[in-house]
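Quick note —
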Amino acid sequence: MSTRETVGKIYQEMKSKVQDSMSPFEYIQGIGNNWMKDVVEMVEKDKLKPAVMGKDFFVEVCLWIDQGVLVGTPQWRAISRFTCPTPFHDRGAFHYIRREERLQFLWFVPSPIECKYYLDNALNLSDQEKEAAHMVLDFKDGTLLRVAKKLNGEKNDDELIFYRKDENGQPIA
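Predicted structure written out below.
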């Protein structure tokens, strides 16, 4: 009688392989090519909604690592919005330009761990990974935030709103 491997054992082997042998860039690629297709399909549906007829809009893509049943499985969700999202880790942004009928990629900021990987290994990255590293540098130096502010019609010297204050009433970043 042959014994079959359990799902748990197979999953643990796959999980250890992913963590041991893949760079963060390869891990994000593991989400598959369907997410971009799904974003395009969402834009095609959303651009027909009465609320956005004749207007540009933005799509924010949020990535997270599932900590539930399939621990370590990358997941994503995309939402349409009228304002350009603030750049943040594990988030991407697109701009739908109505007059050109074009979806423009703005950025994707990887997780803090991936950002560190790109910065620490800058000299050994492939061409695709170097593009991601440039995005990380633009995030770190504030370039992406300035782009978001410009697209939202804000001035670069506008202050960020802080919700928490210290005991002296000073904003906490």
